[in-house]
Amino acid sequence: MALRHYTLDFNLSAPADCPSTVRGLHSIFQEQEMTETVHDTEGHGYLATFIGKNGRLVILRVHSQGLVTVDLQCCEGDNIAQVDNLLNALEKKLKSLLHGNIRGVKRLPALTRGAAVDRYWPTADGRLVEYDIDRVVYDEDSAYQNIKILHSQQFGNILILNGDVNLAESDLPYTQAIMGRGKENYTGKEVLILGGGDGGILAEAVKLNVYIDQMVIDGCRTHMRKACGSVLDNLKGDCYQVRMTVLSIALFLRRDGTFMVYSVSDSTWEFLQLILDLSIKVLRPTGKYFTQGNCANLTEALALYEEQLGRLSCPVDFSKEVVCVPSYMELWVFYTVWKK
Q1: Are residues 168 and 105 in the same domain?
Q2: Domain range for residue 66?
Q3: Which residues are catalytic?
Q4: Number of domains present in the structure of the chain
């Protein structure tokens, strides 16, 4: 079962005349054979619910601060034309009743709740985005996280890990930004990628040792081929090798090619500082550390990250680039870090 939720808002120059506004709408609800229940707001305007025989629910609120809101909920299988007619009638009547007092009217498309295919995913800075997702391609739980791959008509298949949008097949700008493409020459270089289970960076890299969730690889190998190509078909190629380990362990290469293993705490910033410290230590003098930062709107989080860079055991310099990542629908900051 799914529910459609419509909203209609009237911003007013002055508080509405509550009794006359409510009386003016009664005929519409009576025509719909909807039963009214008035709720006590303890002096904070008017609140009533109207329930129809077909399960439709209307919440009418006349706020004392100059706002009138209408919320309409109906089942997904309800007659859309009838629902639109009801909303049109309410909007037209309210415009007439509130004429001369209206600063703005806002009617949003329906929010679908409880649908089999979830189209709503938050951005990093907490805004809600509705994607044009039409089907679930892959949905599995590994020992570490939930892995979803959803199909978008605009962005192709989208990888979502634990509710966070990670990468879509359209997101080449992300891969190019995190690799410093166009500014760095990878010829003859050794590359260690931490994460990267979608295979996008691997498809661009020269040599790789990467630590990722096997089930992320399994899903992306089949359903994200526009991002990773064929590089995940085999875990070892002429110039790369893929290795897996648990997500709560950080592994880094020594100079001689062996591994150092470090257990990490659950603290995000402690973990981040450990990753940064160990990564910078294994860099050659001319080596560089590339990473995504965060959404450009999250200035406080970005400032905290840059503070961490200043606290490393090895002094570093850094540069940053702001890139629009298509499926994120927001600007994202990428960092390049190197030893002083």
Answers
A1: no
A2: 3-112
A3: 256
A4: 2
